[in-house]
Amino acid sequence: MNGQHTLNPGNTDRGIVTQQRAAPAAARQPIEDDKVMLRAARDLTKDIAEANPAIYWTDMLVSALIGYGALAGAILADSVPLAIALGVISALALYRALLFIHEISHFRRGAMARFGAAWNVLVGIPLLTPSFMYEGAHVIHHKRTQYGTVEDPEYLPLALMKPWTLPLFVVIAPLATVGLLFRFAVLVPLGAVIPAVRRVTWARFSALAINPKFRRRPVEDDLRQKVFWQELGGAVWAWTLIASVFLLGWKPILIAFAVFSVVATVNQLRTLVAHLWENEGEPMTVTAQFLDSVNVPPPGRIAELWAPVGLRYHALHHLMPSMPYHSLPEAHRRLARELGEGSTYHGANHPGMASLVARITRSTMTRR
C-alpha cells in the first residue's frame, strides 16, 4: 500500500490490505496510494476512454420504452399477478434509464448535450429527478479532500453507526417519491415568489444527497439556465400528475407511485452497498477511497439488475470517474488480469449484495 506494489499475485501486501479494512476505524492506519495500480488504471485503458453515443442513446431509449410500456400495461391489466409482474419489469427498466443521471453528471462540459436534454425530457422530469440534482453536486463525492467528509453529499459512515440506522436508511426510500412531488409542486412555485423558500429549497432539497448535514452552495452560473428549465418542467409535470387524479382516477397514479417507490428502494439498497462506509470524516487517498468502494464483478449476473449502467464497478469508477459505463467491464478485465488476485485492486471486489449487507450489519452491531 506504499506505492511499492509489484504485479506479483502473491504479494504479501494483500494481507495488510485485508487487515486494515477489517480493523476498527480507530485502529486503522492511513492507506497510502498504490502507485502501481493508479498507473495501470491510466495506462491500460486509454483506448477505451471515449463514450460511444450510439450505446448511450440505444440503452437509454430502449430502457425508457420498456419501462413506460410495462407501466402502461400494469395500469391497464385486469389481472393482479400480471399487473405486479409488469410493475416489476417497469421498475427495473425505469431504474436503469434513471441511472444515466450518473453518467450525465460526469460528462465534460458541453459533451453529449442533446443526450442530456433528451434524457431530462424522457426520464428525468417524468420521474421528478432532473439532472441538476446530480450535476455539480455529485462531483464533490469524487474530490480527494471531500470524499467521506461532512462536505460529501453522498457519504455517511453507516458501518460505524447504530444498528437501527440501516433499516431506517432503506425504509425511508419510498418516501422520496412523495417528497419529490412536494418539492416540485409546492416548493418550486413558492420559491418563485418567496426568496427565502427558494434558498432553503436549493440548499437542502436540490441534490440527491444522503448526508443530512450537506447544504448545497448557491447555483453555479453554468447550471443556472438548466435549473430554471428543469424546475419549470418538473413543476408543470408535478401538477399534471395531481390533475390526472381528477381525470383518470386514483388507479394510474397509485400504480405509478408504487413503481417509482420500488425504483427508489432498489436504488437505496444499491447505495447501501456502494461503499463500505468505514470512514469517520477524514480526507482519504485515492487508494483508500477505492478500497472503501465496491466492485461486484462477474460471474454473478444479478448485480446487473440492481447496479446497472456500470455501477457494479463502483470502486473502479472511483479510480476513473470519466470512464464511460460501457467501457468499465473491459477496464476491469484488463486490470484484474494485469494486477492479479493478490493486488490492491482485488481488495475492492465483492461477491454480492448479501455479503456486503452482512458485513455492514456486523460492523454496526459493535456500536450498540
UniProtKB/TrEMBL annotation:
Q: Which residues cross the membrane?
A: 54-76, 82-101, 113-134, 166-194, 253-273
UniProt record, GO biological process: lipid biosynthetic process
Pfam families linked: FA_desaturase
Q: Which UniProt keywords apply?
A: Membrane, Transmembrane, Transmembrane helix
**Name assigned to this protein:** Fatty acid desaturase
InterPro entries tied to this protein: FA_desaturase_dom, Fatty_acid_desaturase
Q: Which GO terms describe its cellular component?
A: membrane
Provide the Fatty acid desaturase domain boundaries.
81-346
Q: Name one GO molecular function term.
A: oxidoreductase activity, acting on paired donors, with oxidation of a pair of donors resulting in the reduction of molecular oxygen to two molecules of water
